[in-house]
Amino acid sequence: MAAPRARAAAAAAVALEAALAPPRDVVLFRHDRDRFFRLLGLFCAGQALFWGYLAHFAFTALRPAPGPAPGPEDPFRPRDNKWRFGFTASCITLGSVIVAAGCLFPLRAVRRVTLLRGGAEVSISTHGPLGLGQGPTITVPLRHVCCRSHRSEVPAAIPLKVKGRPFFFLLDKEGQVCNPRLFNVTVGAYRNL
After folding, report:
1. Average pLDDT of 37-43?
2. Environment class of residue 19 by beta-carbon count within 10 Å: exposed (0-12), middle (13-18) or buried (19+)?
3. Which residues lie across from 157 on neighbouring strands?
4. What pLDDT was estimated at residue 189?
5. Which of 25, 63, 64, 79 has the fewest CB neighbours in a 10 Å radius?
6. How far apart are CA 121 and CA 142, in angstroms?
7. Are 158 and 149 in contact (CB under 8 A)?
8. Is the sign of the CA dihedral 165, 103, 116, 174 positive or negative?
9. Which pLDDT band, with edges at 50, 70 and 90, does 78 fall under?
10. pTM
11. What confidence score (pLDDT) does residue 9 get?
């Protein structure tokens, strides 16, 4: 009785080991959102133009008028340059933050996760900044990749941590997990990094 169980357990271990060391590259996750990120880039470019124009307008048109100090009838038109410089700087800062977010967010959204031949390394492809072209593809050892949550536990995106990278990569739940069992035991496994 114990012999059939031992053989079944050994066969399962061999099958799992063979699955973890595939003879060719295996795509584990795929989600191409090129159109969305191009629209996001267009939005960010529009915001940069708007905030840049507003900063230019604030710097050139809001010069203090010569004359006496502002009275109670004109409290919003100060007679020094502090207000003008502050408003210009805030417009430039806000526009820059929007463009920076539009550049960084697509670099964290994963386009494809591939388990490379042999099963020891994983290739992670992302989108390009502002949705322009393909982003970088990084190849890391499988032991340096960790999912912080199981894919059934998260509502929108699966957080993927790569050792040595400051932020999480995000795998959108709308994407396709091509081989769920292999994904769960390789990239989807929790590891202490």
Report:
1. 94
2. middle
3. 172
4. 81
5. 63
6. 5
7. yes
8. positive
9. low
10. 0.75
11. 55
* Cα separation, 189 vs 193, whole angstroms: 12
d(CA 14, CA 47): 56
What contacts 98, CB < 8 A, 6 or more positions away?
Answer: 44, 47, 48, 51
Tokens of 6: 């031992």
* CB neighbourhood size of 107 (10 A): 14
Nearest to 122 by CA among 11, 20, 7: 20
Residue range 95-138, pLDDT digits in tens: 999 999 999 999 999 999 999 988 889 999 999 998 888 889 99
Query: Does 94 score more than 80 pLDDT?
Result: yes
How far is Cα 31 from Cα 34, in angstroms, rounded to an integer?
Answer: 9
With helix as H, strand as E and coil as C, how does the chain read? CHHHHHHHHHHHHHHHHHHHCCCCCEEEEECCCHHHHHHHHHHHHHHHHHHHHHHHHHHHHCCCCCCCCCCCCCCCCCCCCHHHHHHHHHHHHHHHHHHHHHHHHHHHEEEEEEECCCCCEEEEEEECHHHCCEEEEEEEEHHHEEECCCCCCCCCEEEEEECCCCCCEEEECCCEECCHHHHHHCCCCCCCC
> Under a CB-based contact definition with an 8 Å cutoff, are residues 139 and 46 in contact?
no
Can you tell me which residue has the tokens 């031949």? 117
CA atoms of 185 and 19, how far apart (whole Å): 10
